[in-house]
UniProtKB/TrEMBL annotation:
Organism (species): Tsuneonella dongtanensis
Gene Ontology terms for molecular function: metalloexopeptidase activity; zinc ion binding
Record protein name field: MPN domain-containing protein
One GO process term, biological-process aspect: proteolysis
PROSITE patterns on file: MPN
Lineage: Bacteria, Pseudomonadati, Pseudomonadota, Alphaproteobacteria, Sphingomonadales
Length: 131
């Protein structure tokens, strides 16, 4: 099923990744149904942020609480590869859970979208909308 995301949010992902360089940027993808409505940057709390990411657990818990209270759902996660391609790394694949969440990976000035499926990461079709 295709996802929908605005060009503004794609630009925001690329901008956040650039500002964090040479560290990995990371965060949450929020929305409802098939529409990604918000990209939320979160602190990368991994001890080696130049090559790994870990979304601040407090931000993740707060987002899930807000969703239970009627806010946007956590559709997935995003992170950057400061020196790599926008595709799942060996580390990403090792941490995959098969939960069906969307992952956006920023690298080389572009964003690619993936689903963390039962058999590993699968390319995800998506549609970029204006503004």
């Amino acid at each position: 099923m295709p996802r929908e995301v605005s060009s503004t949010l794609v630009d925001q992902l690329i901008d956040c990744a650039g500002k964090a360089h040479p560290r990995e940027a990371c965060g949450l993808l929020l929305g409802s149904n098939d529409v990604i409505g918000e990209v939320r940057a979160c602190d990368n709390v991994h001890p080696r942020p130049e090559t790994h990411f870990e979304i601040d657990p407090r931000a993740l818990i707060e987002a899930h609480r807000a969703a239970r209270a009627g806010g946007p759902e956590v559709i997935g996660y995003w992170h950057s590869h400061p020196a790599g391609r926008p595709e799942p790394s060996a580390t990403d694949r090792a941490h995959a859970t098969g939960d069906g969440k969307v992952w956006a990976i920023v690298g080389e000035g572009t964003v690619r979208w993936w689903r963390d499926g039962p058999g590993g990461f699968e390319p995800l079709s998506y549609r970029v909308t204006g503004g």
